[in-house]
Automatic annotation (TrEMBL):
<comment type="similarity">
    <text>Belongs to the nectin family.</text>
</comment>
<dbReference type="GO" id="GO:0005912">
    <property type="term" value="C:adherens junction"/>
</dbReference>
<keyword id="KW-0965">Cell junction</keyword>
<keyword id="KW-0130">Cell adhesion</keyword>
<keyword id="KW-1015">Disulfide bond</keyword>
<keyword id="KW-0393">Immunoglobulin domain</keyword>
<keyword id="KW-0732">Signal</keyword>
<dbReference type="InterPro" id="IPR036179">
    <property type="entry name" value="Ig-like_dom_sf"/>
</dbReference>
<feature type="domain" description="Ig-like">
    <location>
        <begin position="152"/>
        <end position="237"/>
    </location>
</feature>
<dbReference type="InterPro" id="IPR007110">
    <property type="entry name" value="Ig-like_dom"/>
</dbReference>
<keyword id="KW-0812">Transmembrane</keyword>
<dbReference type="GO" id="GO:0005886">
    <property type="term" value="C:plasma membrane"/>
</dbReference>
<keyword id="KW-1133">Transmembrane helix</keyword>
<dbReference type="GO" id="GO:0007157">
    <property type="term" value="P:heterophilic cell-cell adhesion via plasma membrane cell adhesion molecules"/>
</dbReference>
<protein>
    <recommendedName>
        <fullName>Nectin cell adhesion molecule 3</fullName>
    </recommendedName>
</protein>
<keyword id="KW-0325">Glycoprotein</keyword>
<dbReference type="InterPro" id="IPR013162">
    <property type="entry name" value="CD80_C2-set"/>
</dbReference>
Amino acid sequence: MAALNNFGEDSHAAFVMSLNKQSSILLNKVYQPVFGLYQCLFCAVFHVLVQYLSCTVRPVVTVTPAAPLVVGGESGVLATCIAANGHPAAGVSWRTDQLDGPTEIQNNATQNPNGTTTVRSYLLVTPTRSMNGREVQCVVNHTALEHEEIVPYRISVHYAPQPGNITLNGTSSEGPVFQCDVDANPAPTRYTWSRVDSEVLGPSLRPEGGRLVFLKRDPGLNGLYACEASNQFGRVTGTLFVYTDDTRGYYGGLIATIFVLLFALSLLSFYTWKLRRSRPQQDDVGMQALGQQES
């Protein structure tokens, strides 16, 4: 039996012979370019066996977000999936099942000086408000991986505040508190409260960002209020009619008043219908009575 060791003194690979006559290759400092094709020759009488060993390098996978896209703007790169320093080159794809609109994937591979390959996969989309907060996944396949490697990415797109509601958000020790709820990304950086029939809010009202606190119960505070919410991409204004008196407390919103009026109108219509239905019966009874008298 004969063995050949041609690795050299400065090589990162070493030949190891065990006592049971089994031969092995020891690879040191695997971060160096030691991958490749290794040949093992086993020599016996009238027979030579050649065995080849292929060495691979597992890629390092990361997902890098691009600058946030703005709804209403042009399509662009949403995120980049990088499978770096792999040998051979990794296969990179995206799962976009949660997205409604069209997507585009662009891949390119870069050969590194040490013989490894870095693959970059760009996911391009046209930004919509509905995709904000949804998830896409980068999927990497490689011979050094037992299973595909999946890296999730949560989408963030920017857009101006959308029309929302002003709702009752509890009460303070003095009066009610109203909340200006709007959908925006990033969140509104400025809230401006105003009263439509007055230039100033007055000392009985305290704005706290997206909240408006009534400091006392006063019918003089009845009126139409407006909340303007804004970020760097735009602004939106919502309104609320507030009504109160000393006996019934506060009623936030004109909808409650309209509901009461509709309910009263329904009762009046029902009473009128009942009245009209009963009149023909009364007329029939009167006619029968008159006929009996004439006979």
